[in-house]
Structure prediction request, 118 residues.
Amino acid sequence: MKKLGTHFILEVTNIESTTISTHDIVKEKMLLVCRDLKLKIVSEFFQQFSPHGVSGVVILQESHLTIHTWPENRYAAIDLFVCTPYPNQQQLEETIKKNFSGTITDIRVLVRGYDTDG
Prediction:
């Protein structure tokens, strides 16, 4: 398989609901994650939902970072897809914990690419 990137899928719980309730705070936290991991931001879009919740995407030179929040459940689904060897899983986990102060209850790592024989 020709590896083109790594896709990290995180389940984050026990987040203070005010941290993931508003567009402005979620955007600030996500941009801090990118800066902490030295990822190059190309553009971003965040959407506030009613009665609560935020979804956002940061397009990166390296690929993308997304979030979907459920503040009423103190939960966020976060995905990072990068086509570079950096960051690694430990760096990502430390950065998410630092910026969201939650518990990462599950992380899945997928190697993305294609079969070179087909």
